[in-house]
């Protein structure tokens, strides 16, 4: 090997600078193929793979509000080779699920890699604005029906928070991933859905309407879209976010190496661009900052889950 390296150097060719730690072999996505989590996971796999000598498998393991895929990683060998692309469901599982298939202490955050505030979308024939939507909700038996991409997912929690703030009932309709949820909204089977900006092309085609953003401020990508705060429904702030987790026993030096690699990948222009195309923002938070954010999400949403009686699996 030393001879080969010397020959390459002598020939004026630079050998690839492979990652210092063990290669990532598997990124587990605890949601179905086709959603933002899956698509972003594939972007991360592609770019992480560029600095290691072996391929990375994107392993979709949907179901159980992300618990199935998370349990797989929690019980995996703690060697940095198998990682989880977690999201809000990772924070809410302990409050949502009575019989957890894993111990939450068996996974630890490594870094946050993206975020995206949610937008309130409705059927095009349902309402033109939030006041009309609320008027419809007051008259409809059972209130509004809200699609979500899984129990405990960010759309599910956003709808629960929205119902709490407007003091009206809603019917939660759960799907195995984003694609199935948005398809039923497009087909008129459900009334509304909180989703990222990825659904905006359907708004432009006239198939659904975007009424407001569930964030404290308007979005740079959609400046004409008002916040729910502006429209008299305060405090409905919800976002999808994504982060990398590993088994808790993973050596800290391997976690640090993976963190360095993720910081580099998230900062790449191609990753920033691909995230924008998905309606997200490629955002890096190191382990300490991500742990603090993650803990705040656990506390915040656990209160909503208990208040709205969403748990029970």
From TrEMBL:
InterPro entries: BUG, Bug_dom1. Belongs to the UPF0065 (bug) family. Keywords: Signal. This is Tripartite tricarboxylate transporter substrate binding protein. Residues 1-19 form the signal peptide.
